[in-house]
């Protein structure tokens, strides 16, 4: 399927690895120009090199080593390119724990990264998208928005705040101007974060990492973890011309793990 977005320009956050990289990869294969941003310069350059090798047609790949959660980081990505047709927001989730141990600073950091930063990027791009008659914003959030995880209270709270904001903005008339806003909710994907979580659980419980991961797989109807590539394909579709009638949605990609009907 031709997604109809060749020649468009996308900003993809947290794109040096994992789900952000998978999303950037799917977009460059469709001929989309991609600006990738992440904090780790070395990993980011490695990702840029792989994207260059995979890109389709004349699409360009530009890398910005910056912290997108800061004003300086956001200024850096807009200095490289001003008018984005596609924005994929993505930031690492805050740490797990007991809410009794989190102070105000921990909450502010979580809200800043997982709610306010996406809102700032939306604010900086959405009116230009509307003026040009095309725009796609995809926020990578978490399946915990649908089914909260008790030890991920920081993530549950911050990402749910973003979800509510997007639900209202998506229905404000932007869709009539060709601009859609959707959230993509990953479950268990084979990423560094998932592996690090298993390592942490292993140290706490004494079980092996393999045993912990096998137990997690058994809770997923698909009986496996997702891949960054298939996540990226879903993201690319939401960015496509074919998804113009989808807006304000929370698209769950979790192998069937969410037990609810709605």
TrEMBL record:
<dbReference type="InterPro" id="IPR036291">
    <property type="entry name" value="NAD(P)-bd_dom_sf"/>
</dbReference>
<dbReference type="InterPro" id="IPR050259">
    <property type="entry name" value="SDR"/>
</dbReference>
<protein>
    <submittedName>
        <fullName>SDR family oxidoreductase</fullName>
    </submittedName>
</protein>
<dbReference type="Pfam" id="PF13561">
    <property type="entry name" value="adh_short_C2"/>
</dbReference>
<dbReference type="InterPro" id="IPR002347">
    <property type="entry name" value="SDR_fam"/>
</dbReference>
<comment type="similarity">
    <text>Belongs to the short-chain dehydrogenases/reductases (SDR) family.</text>
</comment>
